[in-house]
Amino acid sequence: MENIVKDLRLSVSKTKTFLDCKAKYKFSYIEKLPKKEWDFHTLGKFCHKVLEDFHNAYINGSDKPYNIEMGIAYKAALAEYSDKMNPEMKKECWDLIHKYLQLVSENKKNNTAPNVIACEKSFNFEIADKVILNGMIDRIQIDADNVIHVCDYKTTKNKKFLKDDFFQLLTYAYVIYLEDPSITKVRASYILMRHDFEYITTEFNVPEILKVKDKYQEYANQINLEKEFIPNPSNLCKFCDFLQSCDSGKQKCSPDSIYGEVKW
Questions:
Q1: CB-hemisphere CA count at 13 Å for 72?
Q2: Which of 126, 139, 150 has the alpha carbon at shortest distance from 50?
Q3: Domain range for residue 84?
Q4: Among residues 8, 125, 195, 216, which is most buried (max CB within 10 A)?
Q5: What is the pLDDT of residues 1-35, one digit of tens each?
């Protein structure tokens, strides 16, 4: 019987998981073990939903005041996620969305509001032979200087890990370039919700953008050749969805381990 090689479906998060911990990749994408629903995931989904509905309202031609559309978007998200959030989470979500409303209202007053042209834009295409790249871009806007700008919302509390890790944004820039090869650069930002919606921004030129394809081919080759899926224990194991299935992770998090808490 002919050996049929299936397509390998990759995304930014799937690739990052493999590079961070091959055992986690196996648990998540090969064995497909159930994942936990962490509070920070729910908070992120809630805020993404509000901002998606808010900006889509104006993309679709709304002429309502910002506070009205934001109220509609907030109530819709609350109806979807309310039973998954405790009072502290609801308070934080309210504060974040209120802060965003203040910022966009001030931008509109100063005539500096971004021209948002798409939210939660999905992509799914063959990036290399038998390798499919898929994902979703949180926000795409056209800046005042007519440069296209891709944005990704982040709810992380520690922003230092994002300042030197732009591969996710570079991937999104590649998606934009494929749609319009005439562009000469793409601006890209992480938008830090828990840091007053601060932007961490960079720009990519075309030679930088085109390197993405080769990187995904390299990662695909590594994944296809991987046989052992050895764990990579770290301090992040305590946040892993699959901790109870990983002996190395449990040892890392054990108070009795030299890698865990120190017993005085």
A1: 13
A2: 139
A3: 37-112
A4: 216
A5: 344 447 899 999 999 999 999 999 999 999 999 99
